Amino acid sequence: MIKVSIVGATGYTGEQIIKILLRHKDAKIVSLTAKLDNEVYIDDEFPELKNLIHQKCYPFEKEKAISGADLIFLALPHTLSMKFSGYFLDKGLKVIDLSADYRLKDAEVYSRWYDCRHTDLGNIEKAVYGLPELYENEIKKADFVANPGCYPTSAILGLAPVLKEGLNSGSEIIIDSKTGIMGAGRKASLAFHFPECEGSVKAYRIGAHQHTPEMEQELSKIAGKNIKVLFTPHLIPMSRGILSTIYLTLKKEVSLGKIVELYSDFYKGKPFVRVYPQGKLPQTKDIRSNNFCDIGFAYDKATGKLVIISTVDNLLKGAAGQAVQNMNIMFGLEQTEGLI
Ligand SMILES: NC(=O)c1ccc[n+]([C@@H]2O[C@H](COP(=O)([O-])OP(=O)(O)OC[C@H]3O[C@@H](n4cnc5c(N)ncnc54)[C@H](OP(=O)(O)O)[C@@H]3O)[C@@H](O)[C@H]2O)c1
Known about the structure:
- It is built from twelve helices and 15 strands.
- By secondary structure, the chain is of the alpha/beta class.
- The chain has two domains: 2-147 and 319-330, Rossmann fold (3-Layer(aba) Sandwich); 151-312, Dihydrodipicolinate Reductase, domain 2.
- The protein has an eight-stranded mixed beta sheet with strand order 3-4-2-1-5-6-8-7, with helices on both faces. It has a seven-stranded mixed beta sheet with strand order 10-11-9-12-15-14-13.
- The model has no long low-confidence stretch (mean pLDDT 97).
- It binds NADP nicotinamide-adenine-dinucleotide phosphate (NAP).
- The site of NADP nicotinamide-adenine-dinucleotide phosphate has 30 residues, from helix 1.
- The site of NADP nicotinamide-adenine-dinucleotide phosphate (NAP) has 30 residues, from helix 1.
C-alpha cells in the first residue's frame, strides 16, 4: 500500500487527488495539510466527501506532512514547492509537484515568466517532466516529477505525433485555448466571480501567458528544432475543461486519414489518449471529470493548415489525474489504477 501525503488538500486539485485515491486499491492517504489557520475535517471543507473520508487536514508543517508517507503531492501555488521539495526528497519521499516550479529546465526562463528567482536550482534537473505518454520510462525511475500544466498537456499531446514526424513547415504554431474557471484555483478573486464571467468570453495574456515557455520547451524537444507558439488563452463560462484549437502549416498536403493513422500509431497502448476518426471532433463534455485527452482533426485546403482539436479536463488529465497516473508509473502499477 502506498502511503500518500497531500499538501494543498483544500484546493481544487488537492480535492481531486483525494477523490481519486479513495477509489485507488493500492494507496492510502496518511496526511492532509493546507495553509489553514486551524485544522478542519476534510469532509467539512468538501461536503461531497461526506461518508467517504473523515480525516483531519492540518495547517502545513513539513514534519506533519511527512507522517510516514512514501509519496507526497504538492498541490500548491507556484513558488512554494521550490521551498519544500528538497526537504521531502532528502527525507526519502517521492515527490510529485503540481505547480510550475520544476517544469522549466532553464531557471532564467522561469524567472522571466514567473517574475521571481528560482531558489532550488539543484533539483530542477532532477525533476522529470511528468507527461506519461512521452516520458513513461523516465517517470518509472524518477523520485521527483514535475506534473505538466493544464494548457501544455492539451497542446503537447495534440502536437507530438505531427512534430515528431517532421510534417510541420516552419517553426511557428498558433494555439488558441479555452478554459473553465476552476483553472484559476479555489481562492476567491474578483476576475473569477460568477457575475464577472457568466455569459461572457474573454481572451487574456496573449503571447504573455506563463505556459508559453513550457509548451515551447517541450515542443522543441519533440521537433528537434526551435518551436515558437502564439498562445491565446480564453476564459469561458464553464467550471472545468480545456479545449485547444491548434493551427499549423504542413510541408505538403497529407490526407486526414494518414493523420489519424499517425496519431493512432503514436498513442497505441496509451490508455488516456483517444484519437478521433476523420469527420468527428472532440468536445469538453466527453472529457469532463475523466483523465482522457481527446484529439480530432480538420484540414483547411485554402490555407494548407492542419487544425487539431485537443481537449482535457484541466483538473484531471491537466493536473490531479495525471499526477496519480505518474504515481502509478513510479510505483510500477497499472497507469489506470484509480483513474478508470
Ligand atoms: N486548477 C487547475 O486547473 C490546475 C491545473 C494544473 C495545475 N494546477 C496547479 O496546481 C497547483 C494547485 O492549484 P489549485 O487550483 O488546486 O489551487 P487552489 O485551489 O488555490 O489551492 C491551493 C492550495 O494550496 C494551499 N496553500 C496555499 N498557500 C500555502 C502555504 N503557504 N502552505 C501550505 N499550503 C498552502 C491552499 O491552502 P488554503 O486553502 O488553506 O489556503 C490550498 O489548499 C497550482 O500550482 C496550479 O497552478 C492547477
